[in-house]
Structures are given as C-alpha cells and as structure tokens.
Amino acid sequence: MPHSHHSHSGQFCPGHARDSLDAIVQHAISLHMTVFALTEHMPRHDIDRYPDEGPEHDLTHQLANEEAYFKEALRMREKYRGQIEIPIGFESDWIRPESADLIRQSIDRYGFDFFMGSVHHVHTVPIDYNQEMYHEARRIAGGTDERLFGDYFDAQLGMLKSVRPPVVGHFDLIRLKSDDPNQNLQGLKGVWERVLRNLDFIAKYGGILEINSSAVRKGMDDPYPKREVCQAALEKGIRFCLSDDSHGIDHIAHSYDRVLQFVEQVGIQSLTSLKHGEPSDNVDKNGTTDERFPTLRFGQVDVGTLRQNKFSQSTKYA
C-alpha cells in the first residue's frame, strides 16, 4: 500500500519529465501503489521561464496546459477508479510575493484536492536547475551556502504565511546543489533557527511535510527533509506523507526501500495519505480543515505494515 503525493509527466511537464500521464498511472498500479497524487507545475509569469523554455511557453500557453492537465487528471481518476486513489493537485512555484496571486487563481479555477507548496527560486533565481544558477543565487545572497540557505528558508516562510500549502514540498531542497548536501543543518546556527521557525508555523496551521525520495535518487544520504529536520518536525507533532517526486515511469517509488528504513530509524510510526472525497464526507480527523479544499481527505498507514506489504516484498530499490 505505498503512496506518492508528488509527480510529473512528460505530457504536461515537457523538458523536465517523461511519459504520458496514463502510462505513469498504469505503472503505479503495477507496483501495487494505492495512492498516486498528480501534481503538475502551476503556471508561472513570463519573466520566470526557464532557460530551455522559449516564447511558446508564455503564461497563455501555461494556462491552456493547466486546463488540459486538469481534464486529463479527471479522466485518469475515473478510468482507474477502484484500482488506485488519485488525488489531483498541483505543485506551486514561489518565486516572488506576486506568485501568491497565480497560486490562488489556480485554486479558484479548478477543483483541486490540494497543492504542494514548494520553493525552487531564491532572489528569483532557480536553485535546483543547474550549478551555474545555484552559484548566481549564492552570489546574490552574499557568497556562501549558509547565507543562501538562510534566504531560502526566509522565502519559504513567506510562502507558508501567504498561501499555507496543505503539503510542503521538499522542505530543504536548497541543499541539492550546495557544496555539502549532507551537512547537518544544526551546525548552521542561523539556518537551524529558521528551520525551527518554519516548522513551528507548519505545525500551527496543520501542514504536512512530504518525505521526498528524490534526494536519495540524486545521491544524497537522506531524503528531503534531512534526518534532523524530520526529528524536529516529529517533536512538533507535524504529519508526514511519502512522495517520489517522479518525473517519469523510471522514478516511481524509486529508493522507497531505503527511505522507509530511514523513516523507521527517525522514529516516524505512521504516514498520512491524501484522498479525494465528496464534499459531504467527514472532515479530517487528524488536523485542521481547509475550506479551500472541501474534497481533501486523509488516511493513516503504519510504517511497519507498509514495509511488509506486497509492494515491499516484490520491489526493491537501491
């Protein structure tokens, strides 16, 4: 009964992902997954196009892509009803305060079940796209990883306060291109204070942290968030969900065996799953409700049970 709450397809995220939405969902079913959330990227302002995105990727095109994505996601949910739970959401891009307007517009336009709140930019510069851009963001921040980390968590707090995402995506993504992606954040006093501050805010409004296996897939020791962050979040009563951040079939459930071992070692005993429900269903029994997402429902699964199920026995990932 494994889950993933963060995914992308080549159909709606060309250049960054592969494979059609249908093929991806079929593969998730073949791996005995029970929940597979769809979370394509939200539209961005024209000024925020990536280097590989030409004029044809303007805001008008992105809005049309979002509409097509939502329609296809609804079709997937209906086509595979009874085989797998498919919550439909999107991943937000917090680039500047004005990003909040685009996020709210996406929420208002469609009946999304939730969204994944992420930060991929600091000082409007992408920090996970390539090393060159990371270095530029670091230069603007003052020339050190520690300064950039601090600015990243400040930007994240702005996002959290402005739009309160139901799920917080790859909490410490900033470490991906840093000089030491595995360093203990507790050793960076100003950074660690910001980490705890942001976790306090997430706990206050009832947000969920995703445990994102893509960090392990990319060669890091821990998933997002790191061990010390997970332990601090656990002490604050924050819930966790499991994600692969897949960008194609090959990434689905990648490194889950290692990540589930990590989860047990950290002391997390249960994981939250997201589901789609009718607005008249019972509300969340485990945390605060969100009027923006009346169809969002929650479940819980024991980590020990998850590691012993059919998926874990039949599928191992290094």
Automatic annotation (TrEMBL):
Matches recorded under Gene3D superfamilies: Metal-dependent hydrolases (3.20.20.140)
Pathway: Amino-acid biosynthesis; L-histidine biosynthesis; L-histidine from 5-phospho-alpha-D-ribose 1-diphosphate: step 8/9
Domain PHP residues, every copy: 5-214
Gene Ontology MF terms in the entry: histidinol-phosphatase activity
Biological process, per Gene Ontology: L-histidine biosynthetic process
Catalysis: reaction(s): L-histidinol phosphate + H2O = L-histidinol + phosphate
Pfam family membership, one: PHP
Keywords for this protein: Amino-acid biosynthesis, Histidine biosynthesis, Hydrolase
Superkingdom, natural source: Eukaryota
Any one GO CC term of the record: cytoplasm
Record EC number: 3.1.3.15
Family listed: Belongs to the PHP hydrolase family. HisK subfamily.
Protein's name according to its UniProt entry: Histidinol-phosphatase
Protein source organism: Cladophialophora chaetospira
